[in-house]
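hey so i finally got around to running the thing on that chain from the lab meeting. sorry it took forever, my laptop kept dying and i had to restart like 3 times. anyway pasting the input first so we r on the same page abt which one it is
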Amino acid sequence: MLNLADNLNRQGRYGEAENMAFEVTELLEKHAMFSGRVVEKIECLKIVSYAQYEQGNPLAEQTMQLAIRMVADQWGEQHSWVLEFKTVLHGRLQSQRHNVRA
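ok and heres what got predicted. didnt touch it at all, straight out
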């Protein structure tokens, strides 16, 4: 389901991608055997954040910040995903600044 959500994002079907990632999140939270699946939870947040951003939803930054906190809490601030996600946020801010000036 995560791969499907990612593919939907890549196809520009952002609403469907976001909904699919939320479904995965619900499954992870609902079933005790999946409660420790941190990587999948982070992937859900990443997919949701990308979909939100592409739809102009201001919650995209907050969603990505949550993913960053989860990674840092689990594996530390030096984990490569922290840098990757912060780079994404930086790029989004730069893009917004550029769009404001145009």
